[in-house]
What does this fold into?
Amino acid sequence: MKRILAPLALALATAPLALTFTPAIAQQDETADLAKVNAYIKAVTTMTADFSQTDRNGQTLTGQLTLKQPGKIRFQYQKGVPLLIVGDGKALTMIDYEVRQVQRWPIGNSPLGALLDPSRDLSKFGKVVPTGDPTILSVQARDPKRPEYGTITLIFRRNAASPAGLQLYGWVALDSQNNRTAVRLTNQVYGAPIADSAFRWTDPRPRGRSSGG
It folds into this structure.
């Protein structure tokens, strides 16, 4: 089960985009798109969505995603899956209730750090990935100074009604162990009030250790 959760990446197959403009214009377009993604991350104070997660072996799990900036996220998996991932603003915690195991690592060390830190400038570590579809914007984020933190490719649909004109469709990522998974989002809701208690969790380890933050 843990192999399903630890990665956040699946290889992204993208068709090459036929460039009919000059390199200078292409650079301007990329700069503008990266600025839009930065604006989106800053604009989304909260979000809930249904998610579908597929690992490199083709196994799919579903659940509910809850996000609150900065740095808070919760992956509540479908009934019968004894796993939970929670970000409390500083660290991501993976809880396996079946084996009573808890793993914790800094958010900045995860590919998800690119999505969960509105203070970061994506133009410094991100690049636009051509998709061949003008309605889709795909941005790959990777810290060249910290390759061990992995890579995430955020996928957006251009949507004027969404924050900064973008709707987060999902992401594909590659973690430091080269584990690959894809996450797709549906039924996104922005701006609803979310209590910080949504990012607490029950510690399954012995001696009644408390959780959450």
